[in-house]
């Protein structure tokens, strides 16, 4: 059941200081770790806790190692990015105990005879796979999922229960779609005539790269004429809305409840805090960080952090200030008026006449 | 495969300038259109692109036609609303290739013997139709949908995969419910007693008119005692929440992530930008446009556009300003104090004494 | 069909003034109630309506009773909390007519042989119950639900159609999960290395107490290493996101579209208005009320109401004020400058020299 530290270093690198034969059976936070756990120090301010940890081994950065060694007696794996190292070790431990769904099609699933399901893929109970759809090697499609006509699901991709993946959309390898995610709904496109809406058919697709995670109940609309595109490594949390024709650059991450309106083009390596709202038809540069609860009304061309939410206060204080904010233009007018009056007072008469 | 321009004009009106026998095989934007496509000019600022388009034909407004004709050599269909015309032509082309699900009940579906499903309707795999439910002619119920007891689904209405439509709710003709939409959940109604909540049974229904579209993972709660009502032609995007007892007027449209609290009465022909939030028990007039990310805390009695989101800035600028905004009432106090002081300086002494 | 007033008072308490043999057949608002209904007065300002109500009986507070008796001729049940009394009477009437799903497993459901389903539980069509899962007495699992491996569903708990409840999560007694709710998704946890995200396995659970209601399409993520916890009596509306490792105290209620970021600790008896957004890793005291559309960026240690949304205005007014708000720090600078200048004017020269 245990893994020797030597094996960890062999798999994931890092410098081992201590006995390579030491075995660990799991990974745990500093304060929770027992004597057969490995733990990790990802923030220097917890150095003191490290000294008191019972963990058999510690993943630590070169910066922290010397100080940690003063108080901590166990083995250390020194590595530049202890948090990433922790993630890999945790994945390894999880893989040892995780349930692996069997290859094959559950008897209660419906797979159209014209669909292609790789024999190594898992198709769970009550799944529907429509004609022309392709499910590639080792893909796992859990109970109740729907895969539309001519859709393509890549190798090792996992749909948790009750995902809806519509016709002609494609998703790459090693992706995770969480329960309730809906990919490839019609975009919200209408022409207005005499106050009545006429639906514009949405004939584009959703095209998703490799290593993309999409959260529970998140929705991604298909493009109107062209495709909605989500590049490699994008991570979307729960309850996010991505509208038609959006393009999300590689390795961009969005926290829960974010909304992105139609045709927004978002760069690579961006991060969006929860409930950030992105307007349609705008462009956001690479490496932009939008704070939670911020409305982005226009394009952002420079990397950096952008924010725009109303600062919370006790309700009574907010009420007093909100009236002023609502008429902030009026307050500025008053200040301008005061500036004029003071100028009139402080400026010598002759100068005033010269100016007029 | 192609459609003659004569046929388009016959179906949808407009004045054709060019050869009625010209055939087009699809519709595409100005810059993408090939020689067998029809394209459209919906915004005068793209007139220049029209001249360079390879499209065999162009849908154009009377206003733009003369200038377009100077550079564009193909056929033109002149019509007052080219965008609506485009929508109709696109619908026509889509209908030629769209998959039409067969009439009848899929063998894996469960339809209660006491439900009435029209023989022309389609019931997909793993669908559940409870007792007393009615599914009318040519309705299409895709895989995994749930239709509750005594619910009614109108003619030609389409539920995409995994829609939940609860007991006793009704929906009219030609509606579209997108995947994951949940109609008829219990409203959020509780009485509080000694700090504990007691559920108030929600016994109203959701009553939906004709030609209504409801987006993916959008939720509409049933009324507490009366009904939640969505009138004809309403268009709701994805991830919208409509609480119990709301009434949404005909031909109102809401973009994604909007929330409407209980008992709000919303007029006809309104539009709501994404993530707009509507308070409960308020009334919104017809023809109101609420900007995205705006909280509507009170009734709106006049048509027009209403806005209220914090203007985004670089985070460091926002931090400096947010402190001031949080205490905007304090700033106004200071300005009032300054006004008094300046008045004291500028007002002749005798006048000041008179005022006191 | 009817219930005698005597029976109501026997079940729910209160002082009956009038004929105990009077029968009522349902409960309705003051203005809608007919002669065989019981109605209720929960707000003194509607006393006038009470006088005109046709209701056979009225639930009324001691405070209102004397005035109501002047104009209203029917029977009265006097009780301290008429709204809670109304809720209980309404529940009683609903229970008389509500459909009770039969015990047993629907033939189209898939229940793993290694799952334990109590014989009094209802498992609806197309449900999946994985190995090791436990469904306790009188639980109702409607069509299309998914219950993961080793998950536990308590007595009398009701999952409406299409709920997803993931592996190892537990939920107590008398809970209601509404359609599309997803419990136990992986939390949004990644380590970043070289601009690429590495998934951190989410091995905690979601642990839900008794008498909890969770709304349609609401998502609750499992903990990363520890558990996400929702205590007894919590009420969550639709489309809410609860991130990993959150802890929500007993009898706290959240309206629709609220988002709670990871590791937030929320007290008991709190209420959150719609679309309130709670930052991660913060603590909120008991008895806090957060107004709708408010972003909570930091811990709240004192009970009370907190607010922070931008006050809505006509768009043109908002545009004028938003520019000022965006540069509120600049406006304060101007005011400070004015204060200095006025001080310079009003302070006698000699004093000014002393200060310097």
Automatic annotation (TrEMBL), chains A, B, C:
Catalysed transformations (reactions): a UDP-3-O-[(3R)-3-hydroxyacyl]-alpha-D-glucosamine + a (3R)-hydroxyacyl-[ACP] = a UDP-2-N,3-O-bis[(3R)-3-hydroxyacyl]-alpha-D-glucosamine + holo-[ACP] + H(+)
SUPFAM superfamilies named in the record: Trimeric LpxA-like enzymes
Active site residues according to the UniProt entry: 244
GO molecular function: N-acyltransferase activity; UDP-3-O-[(3R)-3-hydroxyacyl]-glucosamine N-acyltransferase activity
Keyword Lipid biosynthesis: yes
A Gene Ontology BP annotation from the UniProt entry: lipid A biosynthetic process
Keywords attached to this entry: Acyltransferase, Lipid A biosynthesis, Lipid biosynthesis, Lipid metabolism, Repeat, Transferase
UniProt key word Repeat: yes
Enzyme Commission designation: 2.3.1.191
GO cellular component: membrane
Domain UDP-3-O-[3-hydroxymyristoyl] glucosamine N-acyltransferase non-repeat region: 22-92
Biological or metabolic pathway of the protein: Bacterial outer membrane biogenesis; LPS lipid A biosynthesis
PANTHER family: UDP-3-O-ACYLGLUCOSAMINE N-ACYLTRANSFERASE, UDP-3-O-ACYLGLUCOSAMINE N-ACYLTRANSFERASE 1, MITOCHONDRIAL-RELATED
Quaternary structure, from the entry: Homotrimer.
Similarity comment text for this entry: Belongs to the transferase hexapeptide repeat family. LpxD subfamily.
Function noted in UniProt: Catalyzes the N-acylation of UDP-3-O-acylglucosamine using 3-hydroxyacyl-ACP as the acyl donor. Is involved in the biosynthesis of lipid A, a phosphorylated glycolipid that anchors the lipopolysaccharide to the outer membrane of the cell.
HAMAP family given in the database record: LpxD
Name of the protein in question: UDP-3-O-acylglucosamine N-acyltransferase
Species in which this protein is naturally found: Pseudoduganella flava
């Amino acid at each position: 059941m245990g893994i020797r530290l030597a094996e960890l270093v062999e798999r994931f690198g890092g410098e081992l200081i201590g006995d390579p034969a030491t075995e660990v059976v799991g990974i745990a936070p500093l304060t929770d770790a027992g004597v057969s756990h490995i733990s990790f120090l990802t923030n220097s301010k917890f150095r003191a806790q490290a000294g008191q940890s019972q963990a058999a081994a510690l993943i630590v950065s070169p910066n922290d190692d010397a100080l940690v060694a003063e108080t901590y007696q166990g083995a250390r794996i020194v590595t530049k990015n202890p948090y990433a190292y922790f993630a890999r070790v945790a994945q390894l431990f999880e893989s040892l105990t995780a349930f692996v769904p069997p290859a094959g099609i559950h008897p209660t699933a419906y797979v159209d005879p014209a669909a292609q399901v790789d024999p190594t893929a898992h198709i769970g109970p009550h799944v529907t796979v429509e004609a022309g759809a392709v499910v590639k090697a080792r893909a796992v499609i859990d109970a109740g999922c729907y895969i539309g006509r001519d859709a393509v699901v890549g190798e090792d991709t996992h749909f948790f229960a009750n995902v809806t993946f519509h016709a002609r959309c494609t998703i790459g390898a090693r992706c995770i779609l969480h329960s309730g995610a809906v990919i490839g709904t019609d975009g919200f496109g209408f022409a207005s005539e005499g106050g009545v809406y006429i639906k514009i058919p949405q004939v584009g697709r959703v095209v998703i790269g490799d290593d993309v995670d999409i959260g529970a109940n998140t929705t991604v609309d298909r493009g109107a004429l062209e495709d909605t595109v989500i590049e490699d490594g994008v991570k979307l949390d729960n309850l996010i809305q991505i509208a038609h024709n959006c393009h999300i650059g590689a390795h961009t991450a969005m926290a829960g409840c974010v909304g992105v309106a139609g045709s927004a083009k978002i760069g690579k390596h961006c991060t969006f805090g929860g409930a950030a709202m992105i307007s349609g038809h705008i462009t956001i540069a690479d490496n932009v960080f939008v704070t939670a609860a911020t409305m982005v009304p226009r394009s952002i061309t420079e990397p950096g952090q952008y924010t725009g939410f109303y600062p919370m206060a006790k309700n009574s204080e907010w009420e007093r200030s909100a009236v002023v904010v609502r008429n902030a233009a009026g307050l500025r007018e008053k200040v301008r008026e005061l500036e004029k009056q003071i100028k009139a007072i402080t400026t010598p008469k002759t100068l005033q006449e010269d100016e007029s």
